[in-house]
Amino acid sequence: MQQGNDHFFDWDHVQQFGTLAIVLSENDQAEWTIALGGEDFSFDDNTPEPPTGEIILYKAKLKDAEAIALEYKGEAQSLQ
Protein backbone atom coordinates (compact mmCIF):
# COMPACT_ATOMS: atom_id res chain seq x y z
CA MET A 1 0.00 0.00 0.00
CA GLN A 2 1.41 3.38 -0.92
CA GLN A 3 0.59 6.66 0.85
CA GLY A 4 2.41 9.78 -0.33
CA ASN A 5 6.14 9.04 -0.20
CA ASP A 6 5.64 6.10 2.16
CA HIS A 7 5.26 2.54 0.93
CA PHE A 8 4.00 -0.17 3.27
CA PHE A 9 4.50 -3.93 2.81
CA ASP A 10 2.56 -6.47 4.85
CA TRP A 11 4.31 -9.61 6.14
CA ASP A 12 2.98 -11.68 3.22
CA HIS A 13 5.28 -9.60 0.97
CA VAL A 14 8.47 -9.91 3.04
CA GLN A 15 10.94 -12.74 2.44
CA GLN A 16 14.01 -13.28 4.62
CA PHE A 17 17.34 -14.28 3.04
CA GLY A 18 19.66 -15.74 5.66
CA THR A 19 20.35 -13.51 8.66
CA LEU A 20 21.48 -10.41 6.76
CA ALA A 21 18.69 -9.39 4.36
CA ILE A 22 14.99 -9.24 3.59
CA VAL A 23 13.28 -8.58 0.25
CA LEU A 24 10.05 -6.59 -0.02
CA SER A 25 7.84 -7.66 -2.94
CA GLU A 26 4.78 -6.39 -4.74
CA ASN A 27 2.85 -8.26 -7.46
CA ASP A 28 5.33 -11.16 -7.16
CA GLN A 29 8.23 -8.84 -8.07
CA ALA A 30 11.05 -7.78 -5.76
CA GLU A 31 10.84 -4.04 -5.05
CA TRP A 32 13.39 -3.38 -2.27
CA THR A 33 16.12 -5.18 -0.37
CA ILE A 34 17.02 -4.23 3.20
CA ALA A 35 20.36 -5.62 4.39
CA LEU A 36 22.65 -5.34 7.37
CA GLY A 37 25.96 -3.67 6.51
CA GLY A 38 28.05 -6.81 6.84
CA GLU A 39 30.60 -7.16 9.60
CA ASP A 40 30.22 -3.60 10.93
CA PHE A 41 26.62 -4.10 12.18
CA SER A 42 26.25 -4.84 15.89
CA PHE A 43 23.22 -4.98 18.15
CA ASP A 44 22.85 -6.31 21.69
CA ASP A 45 19.25 -6.50 22.88
CA ASN A 46 20.48 -6.92 26.47
CA THR A 47 21.65 -3.29 26.62
CA PRO A 48 19.88 0.04 26.03
CA GLU A 49 22.58 1.08 23.54
CA PRO A 50 21.41 1.68 19.94
CA PRO A 51 22.72 -0.58 17.18
CA THR A 52 25.96 0.35 15.41
CA GLY A 53 26.85 -0.14 11.75
CA GLU A 54 24.75 0.28 8.64
CA ILE A 55 21.37 -0.97 7.55
CA ILE A 56 21.21 -0.51 3.78
CA LEU A 57 18.20 -0.12 1.48
CA TYR A 58 18.50 -1.06 -2.22
CA LYS A 59 15.94 -0.64 -4.99
CA ALA A 60 15.56 -4.10 -6.54
CA LYS A 61 16.97 -3.82 -10.06
CA LEU A 62 19.61 -5.66 -12.06
CA LYS A 63 22.02 -2.80 -12.76
CA ASP A 64 23.25 0.28 -10.92
CA ALA A 65 21.39 -0.35 -7.67
CA GLU A 66 22.19 2.63 -5.46
CA ALA A 67 22.76 1.83 -1.78
CA ILE A 68 20.83 4.05 0.61
CA ALA A 69 22.25 3.94 4.15
CA LEU A 70 19.50 4.19 6.77
CA GLU A 71 20.06 6.19 9.95
CA TYR A 72 19.04 5.31 13.50
CA LYS A 73 16.77 8.01 14.91
CA GLY A 74 15.94 6.62 18.35
CA GLU A 75 12.93 4.75 19.64
CA ALA A 76 10.28 3.75 17.11
CA GLN A 77 7.06 5.74 17.30
CA SER A 78 3.80 3.91 17.85
CA LEU A 79 1.58 3.74 14.77
CA GLN A 80 -1.56 4.00 16.92
Give keywords.
80 residues, mainly beta, five-stranded antiparallel β-sheet, two-stranded antiparallel ribbon, globular
Q: Overview of this structure, please?
A:
- The chain has strands at 2-3, 6-7, 14-17, 21-26, 29-36, 55-59, 67-70.
- The protein has 80 residues and is an all-beta fold.
- The protein has one domain (13-70).
- Strands 3-4-5-6-7 form a five-stranded antiparallel β-sheet, with no helix packed on it. A two-stranded antiparallel sheet has the order 1-2.
- A hairpin with a 2-residue loop joins strand 1 and strand 2.
Query: Element order, helices and strands?
Result: EEEEEEE
Strand tally is 7
Low-pLDDT regions: none
Order of strands across the main sheet: 3-4-5-6-7
Overall morphology: globular
- Count of runs of 4 or more consecutive helical residues: 0
Question: How many angstroms separate the termini?
Answer: 17 Å
What's the gyration radius in Å?
14 Å
The largest sheet is:
5 strands, antiparallel
Mean pLDDT: 77
Which structural class best describes the helix and strand composition? mainly beta
Number of domain units = 1
Strand content: 35-45%
Helix content: under 10%
In short:
The protein has 80 residues and is mainly β. The chain contains no helices and seven strands.
Please render the helix and strand layout as text.
Blueprint: E1 2-3, E2 6-7, E3 14-17, E4 21-26, E5 29-36, E6 55-59, E7 67-70
